[in-house]
Amino acid sequence: MEKNYLNFGKKVAYGFGDMGSNFMYTMVNSFFILYLTNAVGLNAGIIGTLMMVSKFFDGASDLFFGSLIDRTHTKWGKARPWMLFSILPLALCEILLFSVPSMSVTLQYAYIFILYTLINAVCYTVNNIAYSTMSALITKNSNERVQLGSIRFIMALCSSLFVSTYTVDMVEHFGNDLGAWRTVAFIYAVALIICMMVCVLFSKEVSEDLYCKG
């Protein structure tokens, strides 16, 4: 019989990580183009092209950061430090994405491309790879890993549904202008930070020595 490493509270704490990331992921993937076209007034075709080009950087960074996390050894573990240090940059990038400054259109497109690439190819990639890796590091029990996957899916769905359902209403509540989008992005960024900090603080990695002995 396999040893149990996690109680229900720790499993839920792990799930908060995916809940937090969806306050950014769903917001960006569902509403960023809407914000840029309707609020900022930019061309949807050009924006789509910039996003497509940005995805090439995203694919390359997966391999790089995955290898980097694999070679990490600290008293906090392998993946947990990377998730911790990526939280604030991820939240900040979300706010900045929905805070396109008033300047020339060319500079606005450059701003969008740089921020969109940074949040996807660097911040989210580091955070998500570290988070996914943690499920294999906080328990050696295969059944618990399956449970972690189910719990994270349910909690991610909750935040994703919230963002999908209430974002437009929140934007309208705050004035339906550029400042309103920035305010909503700030609220989601704070929610992201709180949820992910719960995950990091209560998801302790199993000592690598135990893996070696196992």
Outline of the structure:
The chain is mainly α and 214 residues long. It contains seven helices and no strands.
Structural commentary:
By secondary structure, this protein is mostly helical. It has seven helices and no strands. The chain is globular.
Please describe the topology of this protein:
Elements: H1 8-40, H2 44-70, H3 80-97, H4 105-134, H5 142-173, H6 178-202, H7 208-213
The low-confidence parts are 210-214
What is the 3D form? globular
SSE order, one letter for each helix or strand = HHHHHHH
Task: Provide the gyration radius in Å.
Answer: 19 Å
Features:
single chain; 214 residues; mainly alpha; 7 helices; disordered C terminus
